[in-house]
Amino acid sequence: MISPDTIKGIYTDIREKNPEIVLEAFTSKEAREVMWKLVAEDNATVLDTDKKVDYVMQEMVGLGVIETIIKQHDTVTDITFNANQLIVRRSDLKDPYPYEDQEITEEYILKIIQKFANAVEKEFTPKDPILDASLGNLRINAVHKAVSPYGTTMAIRVSRPKLALTKENFSDFAPDYMYEFFKAAVAAKANIGISGETGSGKTEFQKFLLSFIPFGEKIIWIEDTREGHLKELFGDTKDIHSWLTSPGVTITDLVKAALRNNPKWICVSETRGMEAYEMLQAVLSSHSIITTLHANDVKTIPRRFINMMKMGYQLDEKSTLGDIYENFHLGVHLKATELNGKTVRYLSEVSEYNADGSVKMIFKQEHIDGRFVQTVGKISQKLKDRMLEHHVKYSGLPVRGE
Question: Tell me, what DSSP letter sits at residue 399?
Fold first, then answer.
């Protein structure tokens, strides 16, 4: 209908004039409508029918089956291609499944990958065989067949600007009295580390905690892939500076920059490396943090922080570990399990850290024989005093037997 060279010319022209609209058009209906009008107006001689404009738009920013799958189910979290099958993972199902509504070839997937590459002006060739890119709420990693002997592979992560965990569905995650506990803990500006395996809901729980922070407490949000969508989630109800790493700017750089912006909260989406050291410095200078990390349980969170700090700094481990136990208030561990054929994410444990290096269990929840069993401890006088210091009214956890 329209030659590839013509489409390439149209794409180059509109990307130069309206780069933000082009990027947003991959995942935003509104942006795509704006782009459609611009393309039609600027190329009226060549694109003299709506059908031609539709065709060119699909070739430039259409993602075909990826769009179809995402529209079919708002619970889709991952779409992957293993060189011969397209696999879909949804948050409401335990196991992923192959997409079989239409035949998907490697050539078809390559076209989708190339659209991502073109949009972010990166190469995807035998010389540049790995592509990492983000478009709106989609993040892609693709590996070229030059280094993948069975064929090109692709993984797309889908994130949406919504709170998966809310007051309305909190009882599916933990007892309601823990909702009030977390609300009080955030009001007391507690420093919180959230651990759990991949897929346990760490980032969603982190965003849930951030929902309690009032406008008057500035938040610096730092991530290396655009998945939080905090500005879209909270709009003008919170004072948020949302920052994203780049090839030349690390999380460590952004944590250092955050200290010069007078925030109350510095929240790193996921702590993975030596930025852990700068985050401790932030805590020691009276800033509050909420971050996620990979750790086996709440007891191993302090040691994980030490190991990450050692990736870039020489430490007095004993002294630094003491600082963590003294200034990190809560460790939270999440888990996921199968229940009635669906994946259920739940609060596994909440504990306090003490200056002497001990860990005090506040709440524990286990999934045993198809049901959840809770054990409730007591919060320390130290945490009670912190709540009083910040004028937090909190009646406490239920007493055993209640």
Answer: P
Q: Domain 168-388 has what CATH class?
A: alpha beta
- Written as six digits, the tokens of 118 are 């073109």
pTM more than 0.70 = yes
Token pair for 273: 């490396």
CA dist 55 and 300 (Å) reads 54
**Per-residue pLDDT at 260 exceeds 70:** yes
> Could you please report the per-residue DSSP string of 172-199?
GTS-HHHHHHHHHHHHTT--EEEEE-TT
Q: Where are the alpha helices (DSSP H) in 224-332?
A: 230-234, 251-258, 275-284, 301-309, 317-327
Cβ contact 242:231 at 8 Å: yes
**Which helix (DSSP H) or strand (DSSP E) does residue 278 occupy?**
helix 275-284
166-181: average pLDDT: 97
Classified as helix, coil or strand, 220 is: strand
The answer to whether the CB of 139 falls within 8 A of the CB of 154 is no
Residue 82, token pair as written in the block: 């293993």
Pick from 81, 149, 164, 76: nearest CA to 116:
81
Note the pLDDT tens digit of each residue in 195-226.
999 889 999 999 999 999 999 999 999 998 88
pLDDT tens figures, 107-147: 999 999 999 998 888 999 999 999 998 888 899 999 999 99
Instruction: Supply the pLDDT for residue 225.
Output: 83
Q: Distance (Å, rounded) from C-alpha 149 to C-alpha 35?
A: 38
CATH fold of the domain at 76-155 = Beta-Lactamase (3.30.450)
3-state helix, strand and coil shares in percent for the chain, rounded to the nearest 5: 40, 25, 40
